Fold:
Amino acid sequence: MYQPKFSYSHSIVKDLMSIERSRAIVELMPVPAHIESDLKEQAKLKATHYSTRIEGNTLDLEQVARVVKQKQEDFRIPVEEEVRNYWEALSFLSHEKQNQTPITEDFIKQLHSIIVKHGAGRKSTKSNYRGATPPGVLFAVYDNQSRQPEYIPPEYSDVPPLMKALVKWITTEKEIPVPIKAAIATYQLLTIHPFEDGNGRTARALASYILSIENYDVKGFHSMEEYYVEDLQGYYKHLQMGLPVFYYDGRKNPKDLAPWIEYFLRIMALAYEKVANLSIKFATTPSDPRILSLEPKEKTLLRFLIERNRSTKPKEIAEIFHVKPITITKWATTWLDKGIIEGASGKERITSYRIGELYKDLSLNDLGYRED
Structure:
């Protein structure tokens, strides 16, 4: 059974709190739907660009944007194919989140196969774990400049049981905070190095999925990868944590994963803080002057009436504001004067309301709420 060890440091606790604060802001701030869609696409583009850049891909962000829009059958050189694959892997994860697909070994193999597939039109199948190397050939992660081994992973024969243990841990671990769980899963998959190639991209994509299915993806607006690219030395340094090169000499079961977890959470907190600031910016700058003039309570009221799409009694409105019906009757005087609502029954004594004529054409998207 895989049982990772780590200690809570001040840095870990502080960044966990920061992440929760940013999540709350993003959830509460109603970003207009068209802006939300743009933010998601930009985050996906950045994740694709920077995750492949970590592995040495030379395309810039503009070139990546052009590649992902190409037709499936278009010819591509390897660097183009690499970014297209990662884009498709992120699309795959988004689809699987909707289906609430659990993480299994087959799931990870399928994710990896999408990331490393070659040839236009070629369908990806589940990848196999790495096998034995030819006699005299050492399977290792080599330094790009010195060409010396900087990490020698476990023997290929140990990969299946290690992956089985990791997946079991991911699916059964419910006690530790989700961001720490994602950090540990990233570290352990990279440590096992189950595939011949594409382990880094697969580990980062898997971490994104863990965060996503646990509602820690801040609506898909973030890209942690761009922070890694700005600090590649720090990224690799914290992954290695000063441990021996050989897996069996100390990386098999580190005494404390805190250095890597601290780094992962610091990057996550910065990325999420950026998303929270964007959410505040866009949520407070509506384009429709009618919406600009609304008080927060009035936006909540309009959202409620649009969703119900029928006349509503003061008692029903009172429930969403947690006040008494008599209070709603008082507030309604102002709302009627503004044209936000109008009477739906009775002429002398109004007993129910509907959206006023001035606001009838508004949708949830206009108010900044997403229509599912």
Remarks:
- Residues 55 and 200 are 8 Å apart (CA to CA).
